[in-house]
DNA sequence: CTAAGACCTGACACTGACGTCAGATGCAAG
DNA sequence: CTTGCATCTGACGTCAGTGTCAGGTCTTAG
């Protein structure tokens, strides 16, 4: 499949896919004329990448953990595995932050609702 | 209290405080010589702002919801209140994303642990 | 064959919350 | 008074993922 097809299947822009390749997150085979071709598997890979981006990992960090995706059996992915654990913790901390923020907003919402109830009693 | 004191108490940089003021998130009284002075309350306000930033709100968005913090009884904060609800939802969705990403990492971690156990049986 | 649309590389633009530097002024202690 | 640190304004730098444009090539339907 060509890049436009992959983009639409994975729900990202063509620009992003080229960027991922540039960053070493994605590889492609090239047709004689230089066009990128992908296998169906790449759709899932792109989705995973998107998921990690959404979780706040940078390209650099994703590159670092990819060995755990591509060759989990390699002994040389110790660093990658360590990184994986770190990122898991970071995400957990981030979730806690978001929960705190949501609580703060909930308190604000309650206070405001109370005031509103007073203003328009009916 | 002056800006350096507020910065250290709230755990942010002086630069950030000036930026918050520039964005309309924070106000200060000025001494005759032009130096900013703050009340103790501002510490909490800055912490709230930080919390909202951490939750992914932009300066612009924080400005929009601030009426709910400063004058929850004003009827004219309808837009602000609406925004507050929107952001709460956005945060909830973001939490879901992070949970999904964490699950994905957990699966990766499991797979890698399994491989590792095989490689070094002892 | 030809026109339209997909694709290529390369490059610049953008956004936003700061860091950082420069040059000037304020202020408290010795 | 002076030394040194805090503060002031203004401005430019940064980073990262992506949008977008330009100018050219490829592919495919008619």
UniProtKB/TrEMBL annotation, chains A, B:
Domain named HTH merR-type is located at 1-68
Task: Look up keyword DNA-binding and say if it applies.
Answer: yes
Q: Which UniProt keywords apply?
A: DNA-binding
Supply the SUPFAM superfamilies for this chain: Putative DNA-binding domain
Q: Report the superkingdom from the record.
A: Bacteria
- Stored InterPro entries: DNA-bd_dom_put_sf (IPR009061), MerR-type_HTH_dom (IPR000551), MerR_fam (IPR047057)
Matches recorded under PANTHER family: MERR FAMILY REGULATORY PROTEIN, REDOX-CYCLING DRUG-SENSING TRANSCRIPTIONAL ACTIVATOR SOXR
What's the protein here called? MerR family transcriptional regulator
């Amino acid at each position: 499949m060509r890049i436009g097809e992959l983009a639409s299947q994975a729900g990202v822009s063509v620009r992003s896919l080229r960027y991922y390749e540039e960053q070493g997150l994605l590889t492609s085979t090239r047709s004689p004329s230089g066009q990128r071709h992908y296998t169906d598997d790449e759709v899932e890979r792109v989705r995973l990448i998107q998921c990690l981006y959404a979780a706040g990992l940078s390209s650099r960090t994703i590159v670092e953990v990819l060995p755990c995706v591509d060759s989990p059996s390699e002994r040389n992915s110790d660093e990658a595995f360590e990184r994986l654990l770190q990122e898991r913790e970071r995400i957990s901390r981030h979730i806690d932050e978001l929960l705190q923020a949501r609580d703060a907003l909930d308190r604000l919402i309650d206070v405001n609702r109370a005031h509103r109830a007073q203003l328009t009693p009916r």
